[in-house]
Amino acid sequence: MKNRTINAYLIGSILTLTVIPLLASYWLLNEVLHSAIGLVVVPENQQLLQHYRDDLKTLRKLDPEHEKKYKNRFLQVSDELLIYQKPELLQRVLRGTFLTYYLVLFIAVLIFAVVAAIWLSQKVAHSYKRLTAKDIQKAEKIYELIYFDEWQAIASKLAHEINNPLTPIEMMVSNLSRVYSATSAEVFKENLNDTQAMVSEEVKKLKDMVNHFSRFSKLPEPRLKKCNMLDYCTGFIRQYQHAWPKVELTVKANACAPNALVDIDYLLFNQCLINMINNAVQANKTQSKINVSLTITIENDSEVSLVVHNDGAVIEAADIKTIFQMYYSSKRDEENMGLGLAIVKKIILDHGGDIVCVPLLTGAAFKITLPLSVHDQEHPENI
Fold first, then answer.
1. Which of 105, 138, 171 is the last residue of a domain?
2. pTM, whole model, 2 decimals?
3. Count of domains observed in the chain
4. 3-class secondary structure, 336
């Protein structure tokens, strides 16, 4: 949050808390003043003052020696009588006096509030910067620790995968010298052929492992093109259905699907769907048939979702949290490096979207969300 924003919030808050009570007090005092004048200005008092003034006139004539005293009293009573005859004049004078003092007080309080707000905002901004700097430092340290932990996991995985084929290779090769000196040429030749076959097989496994890592490390930047998601999924099924004989691919869409325009890289997005379908096949090897559906919807008028669902084995709740991590796999076979879903996650993120595993009671599902294309185009490209 910037200093200007903090200053604006604090000044606005303090001014609001200052001005509202002052305005409320002005209205209340004005009502009190009006009510007080109404209580004082009583018609009976006006009649008494008029009679008293008439009596003073009479006394001045009857007692000329004290004429001056009666005249002064007469003028005082006339002034008081004016208040009763014109109460709005008294109200105007009192309100003007009250307003003058009130404005002076209001301006003084306002200046104090602004100064206090500026001072407090500087203090808050300084404290916020210090706290933010500490949080950033902590986040950087945590990120560095996670970064090193991930590379330690990579190193451990590589060491384990490389060590597996090297152990039998070492044993078979070291055994050749013993066989050569202790047996006939034919037996040695047979052992040599077996060793060659085994070494070739283990070397192939090493090459496959390197290829897995190579594909992950060399993912290209997506070259986005506009397409209709419904047309894309239909074309994908038409193109790849034959690749999985035991898989039945279907596409589902709601009424808004024809407007589901997104920007994707066809080759990379194909790789995402292929990886997910391959995972479904590998996770359900015992099933003779697997139904995989691609469901398209538009959400929040800004995102297109694609749910890839299969009716096979359920993904456990504990696996959902770690399923997109590198080298994680629930399938324990030599060909699986646990990079398939990590690659999918990376590609979807590069597209500006996201992918999550949807918890289900039956089957497994992954939900891909992509931003709705903002560019108008009458004829979107088809796959």
1. 138
2. 0.49
3. 2
4. coil
